[in-house]
Amino acid sequence: MQKRILALLAGMAMALPAAAQIGAPGATDWVKTLQPQAPSPFPPMVPAGRADDYVSIVNLMSTYFVALDAGDLDTYAGVFAPDATLYWIGGVEHGRDAIYKNLASFGTGRQKLPKDATDRPRFIHTLGSQRIDFTGPNTAHDVGMWLGFSNRNDHKFETAEFGHYEDKYVKIDGRWYFQERRIFNERLSNRGIYYPELGERDPREK
Question: What is the pTM for the complete model shown?
Fold first, then answer.
């Protein structure tokens, strides 16, 4: 019983910072502005000579997710360009320093547990489908899907969150970074009828 109480308290502590950010008035107003319709589908083949860039961007995304869930602030912030912008369910963060602070109170990787804890609530993100389009020698754009999984339901595996994202990348001194990242959480307040950035059209009858 004591273990279950400790796990419950830890889970509540994990949820509080994110809940405070999510509940902030106007935090997700940015999602109300529809983005231009994306090319759909993107080129089904990686352009000649861009294979290394493609692999680097995929690895950048994987590095982002692992750092996010581990609470690795330096690596997480380091995948963004110094003047990058992050749009997420907690609001809009401008610049690498603000993005660094964003993770400081978010995610299970940053949560403290009692010294006698024997397990921990865990939340992980994973990448779904992804499409990458090279828009210039040192720029790229992508859209894709993401999923979030948790063991917070009495230590049972569950799908906790899901959504999609849209990114703009920039290559600086031979290395790729996020220049702009928009994260849509489709379970919570980013729920929309359609998303032009995914190539979708308004499904409502006219």
Answer: 0.80
